[in-house]
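Q: What would this complex look like in 3D?
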Amino acid sequence: MNLTLKIWRQKNSQVEGQMVEYKVTDISEHMSFLEMMDVLNEQLVNKGEEPVAFDHDCREGICGMCSMFINGEAHGPDRGVTTCQLHMRMFNDGDTIYIEPWRAKAFPVIKDLVVDRTAFERIQQAGGYISVNTSGNTQDANAIPIAKEDADLSMDAATCIGCGACVATCKNASAMLFVGAKVSQYALLPQGQVEAAERVSNMIKQMDEEGFGNCTNTGACEVECPKGISLENIARMNREFMKASI
Amino acid sequence: MSRFYSSSVGRKVLMALSGFFLLFFLLQHFLINFLSVFNKEAFNGASDFMGTNPFVQYALQPVLFFGIIYHLIMGMYLDAKNKGARGGKYAKNNAAANASWMSRNMIITGVMILLFICLHMVDFFFPTIKAHYIDHTHLDAYEMVVAKFANPVFVLIYVVAFAFLALHLLHGFQSAFQSVGFNNRKYTPAIKKLGTIYAIAVPVGYMFIAVFHYINSL
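A: Here is my prediction, written as structure tokens for the whole assembly.
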């Protein structure tokens, strides 16, 4: 198929960017979206032009690096997939595709489609961990019984890959689905109880300081999340925060 | 505690709690107004009770004013803050693909309701307060309602305002439960259904009262 691409080009974080139009031809419907981008970049390199910078790593939907806002949706029009898992068969011959970086004040553009997501790292560092003894006398994890339902819910929350699609798609650029998932995965387990109050307070404080917006429960994040993280995690974070504040 | 009030989640919880109070207020206001359709004396009796009862006047009314003012000021403040958090516009944003119009436009429906509340205060609330506390006279609430709703333009404004209220509540009702952390697989579907019923039934009920009195006046 032949496509027209409108791609955000920005030299670095200091200068203004703009949408630039490119044409790609003979794209196979079996290609992934990133492979299509590779074709474009090869074309640009052959012409002596600067290739489009974009984040990618595992290309199998688990690393959370690929971060494109495609035709007005995070990770494109398909559901439950990252950009690397998005296939070109989702598009039609002759389509014009808009490709933009995540847009959030807390995720400044570094170059073209690459954004700085270290704000997520700082939120994690503020409390997204448990303190356990690792000096040789670590307790066997199976020694603490955990209800199956809690284990499942915790595992569901832990599938968050921190890609930032929730922030990109939220009309408020809110990070609450991410933080909700990270809080929930520990809040549901006995190992997470020791630091529970501190964790939720510190992570929310860091989230606010990073400049993410406020959640208004539109539910857009849940729809666009490649891992299907549920809004229940935001409700759980709210409960944890209320508990910690009393 | 001060960290709670100034945090994003704390504000969200308070938006929900003030919203809950306003939902309760809307329902009781509607039930009293609805009496005017059936019985003049019953409506006047209920109106006088609400206008003179010390608990209503000095306890519930201040809470109501605080609730409305907090809800609208915090709503506008958070909306401005949220717009700032975007940092650059998308050239193409298919927002309708993942969220309802109502959930994305609470500020628009909210501001329309605010304008309506201002009009409504001038029409009904201030005259009643003035009569009671300044002139020390007694206003016949029923006659006032009937006189106002004889004007078709007035009725139309009310109907449109309640349409905005319905849109606001279609998102707001279930959203408030989510904000206070109430979301579970067993009850949330029922809350969403109840929210839809409330968001349609109460505003349509208010519209009915206005149209009823207009038709009655013809």
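A: To summarize the key features: Residues 3-111 of chain A form a domain with the Ubiquitin-like (UB roll) fold (CATH 3.10.20.30). The CA atoms of residues 10 and 185 of chain A lie 37 Å apart.
Q: Very helpful, thank you.
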